[in-house]
Structure formats: C-alpha cells, structure tokens
C-alpha cells in the first residue's frame, strides 16, 4: 500500500480550541435565539450554503420564527473533518460536508465515494433519491449524526500547474492534494501520482507555493476557491461524483420534539431540488469563467483510469454490506 495515509478515525485535539471559542462567541447568540448553527467550507454565495439558508427560511416560516438556521460559511469554524467531530458530540447543530471526510467514520459513505461508480449525474441523483440513499443516511446515526439529505457535487477532475493529463502516465510523480479520505489517497496513488491529504482551505496557498502540483475537484469549487488562477490545466477525468451530505448532531436531534424533527426532515427534503437548480446554474457559470480565463481544458479517455481502480474498490468496499451497496449502485446505473 504505497504512500497510504492513515487518516482513520482520528481524535480531534488540534484546532478544537479555536473552534470551541468561536462557537462560544459567535454561536452563543444563535443557540439562545433558537437558531440552529451550521458549518460550510464554501463561501456565502455557494449553492450548498444557499440551500441550507433556504432550509432555515422554510423552518422559520413554518414555526413563526421559533426555529431557523445560521450558516457559518467559508470554513470559518474549521475543516470538514474537524467540524464533523464537533457536530458528532453536539458542539454544532448542522454541518454540510462532502462524503469524503465521512469515509473514516461511516463505512457506508464509501461506496458512493468510489471512483467511477456513477456513470452520470443522473445515475448519482437517482441512486441517492432511492432506498440506497436512505440506507446510507441512516447509517450515519452510529456516529452521533443524523443524515438529513444529499446535495450535488458534480464530477471531480484533476487540475495541475504542470501540463495536461491524458493518461495515467501523465500523472506519474505529481503531488496531488486530496481530501481527508484514505480511499482518495489510494485512488491517486494507484494512478501513479502522490496523494497529499490537506484541508480544502489550505489548497490555494499550497498550489501557489508549489508545495503541491495540483488537486481535483468540480468546476464550482475549482472556480470559487480560485485554484484555477494557479493551476492552469484542467483534465476532465470525471473520476468521482461523490455527493455532499447535510448532517445534524444526534444530540440536537434528540432534543427536538417529534413534530420539529419531522419539520427539519421536510425542510431538508425541500432544499434538495432548490440546491440542484442552483448547482446546475453554478456549474455553467464556473465553467464559463474558467474557460474565459484561459485555463487549458482537455477531454480524457477515462477507460485507462477506471481500469486501475479495481484494487481501490476491493480494499475500501470489502464488507458484505459495502459490497452489496456497490452492486446495487452499479445496477442502478445500468437501468435507465
Ligand atoms: C468540494 C466539496 C467540499 C469539500 C471540497 C474538498 O467539492 O463541496 O465539501 O469536500 O470539495 O475537496 O475538500
């Protein structure tokens, strides 16, 4: 297992002080006024943030202002993996994260995070809208979290400062940032590059300083985090369609009445089509901005990349339950 980073289920010690302090200062007002606190790594205008704000308005309208949501955007409360831990022990009420940082806590979050498991956005949406999605969300409860809904995250592709990637051979030796997921580390290493797991908020500087050669993400994140200003080659490998998830602290959930729990679920469900509409528009806008800036974008024959992923699937979806989910997800892609 070359270069495998053992992210595992780590205990959060570093950074918790700053986070707790900001929650005590900034979150206190929110907590006293019945606002649910929510974290997001993305800026205020990003579709995930706007979808959770929509939920907040929905809750506020239905409860005459008794319930609402305050979103702390822009990663101000910390990285996804750190804020997830905080959410699981009740320091934060809600958290919008990608499934990748949940991989080390929740084994059933891995199948939809496997490279090339979805063949299209439609396949991903249909799968998550089915009982498969419900099963994955329900499995998060073991970690002190309640899975409320999935949001889109489009297709992730590789970008770098060196040159276009057409085949896995072009990736050899590149230092590529990945999120905190052992499966992502193994995927990038299996393609011949060297995976560097660092938090999303640190990627721009790492690229600018040459600490890494590239990373991988969807059009909107590549654009909004301004990585495209530094990494001028975007190669459309579309290797992952890992969705986002909105989770709630189980401690907070248990403190709500059954009627409020039902309302929170209804609000989350209602936010999904809102998010998808915002998302589709944002993908188009981000693509235009990036292409207009002169980034070299190239299409890729993905078959040689997918062919190298079998060991990653086998290693990271090894339990019978994970294997059954993989089979059902693949089968859903064959039914149109
Ligand atoms: C984005 C995703 C974020 C975060 C980020 C990353 O696409 O929306 O939640 O996971 O990628 O790469 O860290």
Write the layout of secondary structure elements.
Blueprint: H1 16-32, E1 35-39, H2 47-63, E2 68-72, H3 80-88, E3 94-98, H4 121-128, H5 131-139, E4 145-151, E5 156-160, E6 175-178, H6 182-190, E7 194-197, H7 203-208, E8 214-217, H8 219-224, E9 233-240, E10 244-249, H9 250-255, H10 258-292, E11 296-299, H11 303-307, H12 310-316, H13 320-334
Parallel strand pairs: 1-2, 1-3, 6-7, 9-11
Antiparallel strand pairs: 3-10, 4-10, 5-8, 5-9
Helix pairs in contact: 2-10
Bound molecules: beta-D-galactopyranuronic acid (GTR).
Any key phrases for this structure?
disordered N terminus; 336 residues; binds beta-D-galactopyranuronic acid; D-Maltodextrin-Binding Protein, domain 2; 44% helix; alpha/beta; single chain; 5-stranded mixed β-sheet; 4-stranded mixed β-sheet; globular; 11 strands
Account of the 3D structure:
- The protein is α/β, with parallel strands linked by helices.
- The protein folds into two domains: about 160 residues, D-Maltodextrin-Binding Protein, domain 2 (3-Layer(aba) Sandwich); about 130 residues, Bacterial extracellular solute-binding protein, family 7 (D-Maltodextrin-Binding Protein, domain 2), CATH 3.40.190.170.
- The protein is about 45% helix and about 15% strand.
- The chain contains 13 helices and eleven strands.
- It has a five-stranded mixed sheet, with helices on both faces.
- α6 links the parallel β6 and β7.
- α2 packs antiparallel against α10.
- The longest helix has about 35 residues.
- The N terminus is likely disordered.
- Bound molecules: beta-D-galactopyranuronic acid (GTR).
């Amino acid at each position: 297992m070359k270069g495998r980073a053992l992210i595992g289920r780590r205990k959060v010690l570093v950074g918790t002080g700053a986070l707790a302090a900001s929650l005590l200062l900034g979150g206190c007002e929110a907590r006293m006024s019945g606002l649910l606190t929510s974290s997001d790594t993305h800026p205020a205008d990003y579709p995930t943030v706007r979808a959770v704000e929509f939920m907040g308005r929905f809750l506020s309208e239905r409860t005459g202002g008794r319930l609402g949501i305050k979103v702390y955007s822009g990663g101000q409360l910390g990285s996804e993996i750190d804020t997830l831990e905080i959410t699981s022990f009740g320091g934060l009420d809600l958290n919008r994260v990608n499934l990748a940082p949940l991989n080390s806590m929740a084994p059933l979050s891995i199948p939809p995070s496997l490279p090339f498991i979805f063949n299209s956005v439609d396949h991903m949406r249909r799968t998550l809208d089915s009982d498969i999605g419900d099963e994955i969300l329900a499995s998060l409860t073991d970690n002190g979290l309640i899975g409320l809904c999935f949001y889109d995250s489009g297709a992730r592709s590789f970008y770098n400062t060196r040159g276009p990637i057409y085949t896995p051979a072009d990736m050899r030796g590149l230092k590529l940032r990945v999120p905190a997921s052992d499966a992502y580390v193994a995927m990038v290493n299996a393609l011949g590059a060297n995976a560097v797991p660092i938090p999303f908020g640190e990627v721009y500087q790492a690229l600018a300083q040459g600490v890494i050669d590239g990373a991988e993400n969807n059009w909107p994140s590549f654009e909004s985090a301004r990585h495209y200003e530094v990494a001028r080659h975007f190669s459309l490998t579309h290797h992952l369609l890992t969705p986002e998830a909105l989770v709630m602290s189980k401690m907070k959930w248990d403190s709500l009445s059954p009627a409020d729990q039902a309302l929170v679920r209804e609000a989350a469900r209602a936010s999904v089509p809102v998010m998808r509409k915002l998302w589709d528009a944002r993908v188009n806008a981000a693509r235009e901005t990036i292409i207009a800036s002169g980034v070299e974008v190239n299409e890729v024959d993905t078959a040689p990349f997918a062919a190298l992923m079998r060991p990653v699937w086998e290693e990271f979806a090894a339990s019978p339950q994970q294997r059954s989910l993989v089979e059902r997800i693949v089968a859903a892609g064959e039914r149109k």
